[in-house]
Amino acid sequence: MRHSLALFLLLTLVACGTNGTKTIGSTAAEKAAVEAKASVEDLYKEAQKSLDDGSYDEAIKSFESLQSHYPYGRYAQQAQLEIAYAYYKKNEVDASISAAERFIKQYPNNPHVDYAYYLKGLARFNGDNDMFSSISGEDPTERDPKAAQDSFIAFKDLIARFPKSKYAPDAILRMQYLVNALAKYEVHVASYYLRRGAHIAAVNRAKEVLSLYPNTLSTRDALIIMVKGYDAMGLKALRDDTQRILDKNFPKQP
């Protein structure tokens, strides 16, 4: 009987010791989790402060360090988006777009993924889209409209995927501007050809305005170039037909 009681007490002590170990281990894990959360929050706040202060290189390094030490969770996801934004503020267009595309690929279901699409369009819009700034007196054919076209496509993609996004209204306005700017660019190129006697090239470029950008302010200018081009080539029937279209759609003011 004494042996049975002693055995019972021994088993009880072992069980208590085991339970105690589990409690201690669980507490240690919870403590480590709390400390890790505090650390990642501190890293994020530090990186965000650098971003707010305009120290974009430092912010990028801090966000990348955060991702390296804590590659999972919402802070790592947000850090990737902030990296894209920091590159955008630095006017490093390709780096910003690459970072935004990585975010889209890695976190397609993130609630802020619409901003990544918006940022792609914005980076091209504000970065490389200077082909309209000082076009007079230069050869406009040497300028590359691809940046504006890429920006338009990115904004269009945003609106198609997220029509209710809070960034959609601004994207639509920028798309309208880009369409008019691209049409104006085509008119400049057509006018350049016309001045140099390349009448066929001028007419063909003006036709592109009518087919690609039919509802823009540049339609009238494109028709005028076509009338002049046809007239210079002696194509009177085409000139008169185009003139009638011009007069019908843009009647002369008294």
Number-wise, the strands total: 0
Q: Total helix count?
A: 10
State the distance separating the first and last CA atoms: 124 Å
Overall pLDDT level? 84
Radius of gyration computed on alpha carbons: 32 Å
Proportion in helices: over 70%
Give, in order, the helices and strands.
HHHHHHHHHH
Taking the sheet with the most strands, its summary is: none
Structural class: mainly alpha
| Strand portion | under 5%
Catalogue the unreliable spans: 1-25, 28-36
Label the overall shape.
elongated
Structure commentary:
With 254 residues, the chain is mostly helical. The chain has a domain of 60 residues. Helices cover 77% and strands 0% of the residues. The chain has ten helices and no strands. The longest helix is centred in the first third of the chain and has 51 residues. It is elongated and about 90 Å long. The N terminus is likely disordered.
